[in-house]
Amino acid sequence: GAVVSQHPSRVICKSGTSVKIECRSLDFQATTMFWYRQFPKQSLMLMATSNEGSKATYEQGVEKDKFLINHASLTLSTLTVTSAHPEDSSFYICSAISGDTEAFFGQGTRLTVV
Amino acid sequence: GQNIDQPTEMTATEGAIVQINCTYQTSGFNGLFWYQQHAGEAPTFLSYNVLDGLEEKGRFSSFLSRSKGYSYLLLKELQMKDSASYLCAVALYSSASKIIFGSGTRLSIRP
After folding, report:
1. DSSP-derived pairing of the beta strands B98-101 and B3-5
2. How many other C-beta atoms can be found within 10 angstroms of the C-beta atom of residue A12?
3. Chain B residue numbers touching A57 (CB-CB < 8 A)
4. How does DSSP assign B49-102, residue by residue?
5. Do B99 and A103 touch (CB under 8 A)?
């Protein structure tokens, strides 16, 4: 199947700093990429949907100024957690689709804010 | 709003069969996914149903009834490695394409 690469897999940062997470589709052009957050023992919560070249659509309750999403090309989307706080510590996962296909997931990024 | 329901936890015996149900009420529908997720890992794709009916893939089968807003994932010949969370997700390819997930079902397999 298609491969989606997410980097980094783990990151620890200090409170108040910003962290960038990359999501790349390696062997297909992703028309849409999704960013999810997952807390322990909970399901994936959709944060935002991004389409190449346009602004991301954020879900209700997700601060767009705090979680900056850039989808500059058909193979790359980035999520930047700005001014991170300990409550932002979570597992962040991206997924990508090309047309009406299954969603392919990245490996996830475990963010710990200390 | 969008609503996807599935049982929180289930337990089954190795070698047996288990059915995990999922009901949904969404504005728009363009298919239903089932994913398997082991703790600390990203979800892996199991099935994608667009049309009504049963689709079989090895030990796993998935069923969809669009009129009833209902799907199930059937796992046969259960193995210990099948202990995982199973996520039901609905694709809403409307003006704002998105895929939303149910809360997930944690399946525990006992010997």
Report:
1. unpaired
2. 11
3. 96, 98
4. E-SSEEEEETTEEEEEETTTTEEEEEE-S--GGG-EEEEEEEEE-SSS-EEEE-
5. yes
A11 part of contact set with chain B, CB < 8 Å = no
Whether B29 contacts chain A with CB within 8 A? no
What are the tens digits of pLDDT across the range B19-29?
A: 999 999 988 88
- The pLDDT score that the predictor gives to residue A64 is 93
Would the pLDDT of B95 be above 70? no
Q: A49 and chain B: CB distance < 8 Å anywhere?
A: yes
pLDDT more than 70, % of chain A: 96
pLDDT of residue A44: 87
CB A36 within 8 A of CB A108: no
- Smallest CA–CA distance, residue A40 to chain B, in Å, is 9
Per residue in A33-43, pLDDT (tens digit) is 999 998 887 88
